[in-house]
């Protein structure tokens, strides 16, 4: 089994002893995970195994009860008196979030803004870019996701696949070092899944963005992943290259899970 922790230089994401419970429900259980810069890690596992929670912890949307989470050289949470973990300050959190992009299952676009305006918003409001610069970059990103022609359309005028491609372009607009994708195709009609996976493939092929993806698209996972991590009950059950975890899993629960989804 490949190890989930690394002794190499600075990881893009480093988690140690991360624990998160909702009431009695322990969702992340003493989790250690490193993601190397530029690495593409696909997280798989049964519903409820903690996959979304781990991405939300990285995005500072969910505070762990214990452990450390580091993105680049920044610690996301710090110990307060009494041992409670706190997000490390509003300003700090904003700067961490600007290093990370997250794309959700439901696109979360602003419905009253055009595709272009949705993409320009964070670079202008959060990063202080000029409107001209932000517009130019947003148009380049729309072109990249095959939607240059839809720049002035609002989300209501776009298909689900198009909305998700705009959401991906939007999250790339701040040039995050780490991108988190949480089941970004699972709310789409089947015929729209391919166009979104193609965009993800393009980003993966460029190789410069660290990617953590939760997906049930196993064919896609085996194509783009450097490493597949199988979650089960808040723990990593096994992890390794797709040829190992997807084609020759060692754990019975991985075999059962893959038997159910393939
Ligand atoms: P997965 O993505 O693998 O399906 P999740 O990380 O979404 O799993 O959820 C793991 C468990 O945590 C589930 O049992 C879910 O019901 C629970 N959970 C997630 N978020 C919350 C929350 N905000 N409040 C209470 N329980 C939650």
UniProtKB/TrEMBL annotation:
Keyword ATP-binding among UniProt keywords: yes
Keyword Lipid metabolism found: no
Molecular function via GO: ABC-type amino acid transporter activity; ATP binding; ATP hydrolysis activity
Classification via InterPro entries: AAA+_ATPase, ABC_ATPase_HisP-typ, ABC_transporter-like_ATP-bd, ABC_transporter-like_CS, Ectoine_EhuA, MetN_ABC_transporter-like, P-loop_NTPase
Alphabetized UniProt keyword annotations: Amino-acid transport, ATP-binding, Cell membrane, Membrane, Nucleotide-binding, Transport
Similarity comment: family membership: Belongs to the ABC transporter superfamily.
PANTHER family linked: AMINO ACID IMPORT ATP-BINDING PROTEIN, GLUTAMATE_ASPARTATE IMPORT ATP-BINDING PROTEIN GLTL
Protein name: L-cystine ABC transporter ATP-binding protein YecC
Species annotation: Egicoccus halophilus
Lineage: Bacteria, Bacillati, Actinomycetota, Nitriliruptoria, Egicoccales
């Amino acid at each position: 089994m490949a190890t989930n922790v690394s002794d190499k230089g600075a990881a893009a994401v480093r988690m140690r002893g991360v624990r998160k419970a909702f009431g009695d429900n322990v969702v992340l259980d003493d989790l250690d995970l490193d993601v190397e810069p530029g690495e593409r890690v696909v997280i798989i596992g049964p519903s409820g195994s903690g996959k979304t929670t781990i991405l939300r912890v990285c995005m500072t949307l969910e505070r762990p009860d214990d452990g450390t989470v580091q993105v680049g050289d920044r610690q996301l949470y710090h110990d307060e008196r009494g041992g409670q973990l706190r997000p490390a300050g509003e300003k700090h959190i904003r700067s961490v979030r600007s290093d990370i992009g997250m794309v959700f299952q439901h696109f979360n676009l602003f419905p009253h803004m055009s595709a272009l305006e949705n993409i320009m918003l964070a670079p202008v409001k959060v990063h202080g870019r000029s409107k001209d610069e932000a517009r130019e970059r947003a148009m380049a990103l729309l072109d990249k996701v095959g939607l240059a022609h839809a720049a002035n359309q609002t989300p209501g005028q776009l298909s689900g696949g198009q909305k998700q491609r705009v959401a991906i372009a939007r999250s790339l607009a701040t040039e995050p070092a780490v991108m988190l994708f949480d089941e970004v195709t699972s709310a789409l009609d089947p015929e729209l899944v391919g166009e979104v996976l193609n965009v993800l493939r393009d980003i993966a092929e460029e190789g410069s963005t660290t990617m953590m993806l939760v997906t049930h698209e196993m064919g896609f996972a085996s194509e783009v992943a450097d490493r597949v991590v199988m979650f089960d009950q808040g723990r990593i059950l096994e992890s390794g290259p797709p040829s190992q975890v997807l084609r020759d899993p060692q754990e019975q629960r991985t075999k059962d899970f893959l038997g159910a989804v393939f």
